[in-house]
Give the backbone structure.
Amino acid sequence: MARTKKTIEEKSIWDDARQMLRKAERDGVETAWDRLEHQTPHCNFCETGLSCRNCTMGPCRISKKAPLGVCGADADVVVARNFGRFVAGGSAGHSDHGRDCIEALHAVAHGLTQDYTIKDEAKLIRIANELGIATEGRQPLDIAKDLSAEFYANYGSLREELSFSCRVPEKRKQIWKDLGITPRGVDREIAEMMHRTHMGCDNDAANTMLHSARTCLGDGWAGSMIATEISDILFGTPSPRKSMVNLGVIKEDQVNILVHGHNPIVSEKIVEAVSDPELVALAKEKGATGINLAGLCCTGNELMMRQGIPLAGNHLMTELAIVTGAVELIVVDYQCIMPSLVTIGNCYHTKMVTTADKAKFTGAEHVKFEVHNGMAQAKKVVRMAIERFPLRNTNRVEIPQGPIEMITGFSNESLLAAMGGTLTPLVEAIKAGKVRGAVAIVGCNNPKYQQDHCNVNLTRELIKKDILVLVTGCVTSAAGKAGLLVPEAIEMAGPGLKEICGALGIPPVLHMGSCVDNARILQLAALLANELGVDISDLPLAGSSPEWYSEKAAAIGVYCVASGIYTHLGHPPNITGSSVVTNLALEGLDSLLGACFGIEPDPFKAAELIDQRIKVKRQGLGLKP
């Protein structure tokens, strides 16, 4: 099959991306879109989930000619095994992020670091009280010791349920109990998933898929939720603030440092270091007017919502940011970081610095960040960036102009504060049909799609229908660049949503954080369900990841569905080789969990699917559709 080369206009909807794609072609730089072309067409067995490499009797490919693997596994078993391992990887990613956060809180509590402190003592006490930890008359650090121990226990094998199961509506907990999928421990479920999918273990596709749900619930209600809550405790709970987005945030006359990845433990120290007077003076000595820090992907989201640091872009902008020729250093922690950044950096003067032993990149320089040396390492990294400024080739610098303003940082705490400390105004707006429902649009970019076409158009269509949209992760950049994250965007919304958002002074699209912060949305859904005395599955809610690509995104989708939230995906996981698994995902889970997946690549059709779902849920609550 002949490969079809996409035009630059077909690759992205954004002017800044298109400008840098043209520059990349002139500079002879290969991007993700080029590599996708080289990899097309893809293996049909892999795309449908029908290839198995779980033992060396194979590898096996299931087909009409050979319907069984060497061990006797059929298409349903092979697909379920592959999907189980896929979401176990995603659950491990977000949950290991959570473990790193626990380690930081433990170090602070036990006096093992002076570089990190508790920024939100009120939240520390509130979370501790919620989990039954004594707080009266106790010092914050003593409370933090007990809280970190409580969170550590969520990763083991001794419990029957997770700490934050206290947030789950009773009706939902009963569904989990009846199905045998109550999550017990993050590592326990992941390890069991790997065991079940070993040859000679679980060979019942539906049973394997149910444990996939259990594994992902451990991520959503423990790993990710713990990461979110500890990040707020250590670095501050986000509140609405202004920031800027697109490649125009890169400054031609300054030392430019980009932070990329997911864990704020590194980036928060970089924020402090770039303001160090000695380092600012050194930057000026080298010919720069100052030091400019910007974010990429979820680390960018973390800094933006707490510090107002500008966001250069999302997943498919990471390579293009380097193509500007004006980036001295890109500092990464882990997840969603393309190895190509090292190669592209070598085409210019950009150095890539890694900071986590679990995420080293060949050709990058490794500067290990630990809780006891974060500030010293941050200053070292910033100094490295400054030293590279004189190496910049000014003839190769081209920076797109015109960054876009946006409002960021809507935590559940800030939302409740905006409504007077109670959910009553939101509940009344839902009952009146002024806010017909809410949809979380989350996840990634995928070069198979025109960048952000689905993310932006789905968002626009939903707010027209008086559906509030919540965004996290890479969709944040898309919504911001589209002008949807400012109060003026209410002019694009339906009359009811326009009225409510106008009265509150908020946009119709709310940024709630990085991809682990989808746990905020889980908590908000549970709060609404408990307020109304119903299950989460009864609410007019939906989730969507239109341009997803990663194992983490699949895990998020599964824990949303398992929590009772209908979830739209732009394309299916690699499961279509099994009718059993596919039918379970698209229909069967609805009867078991009260929610299922919907697949639709067209954002306009997807908006209609979601709208119909919200109508049904409103009618079920006795409300006008």
Q: What stands out?
A: The CA atoms of residues 536 and 563 lie 7 Å apart. The chain has a mean pLDDT of 97. Residues 75-109 form the longest helix (35 residues).
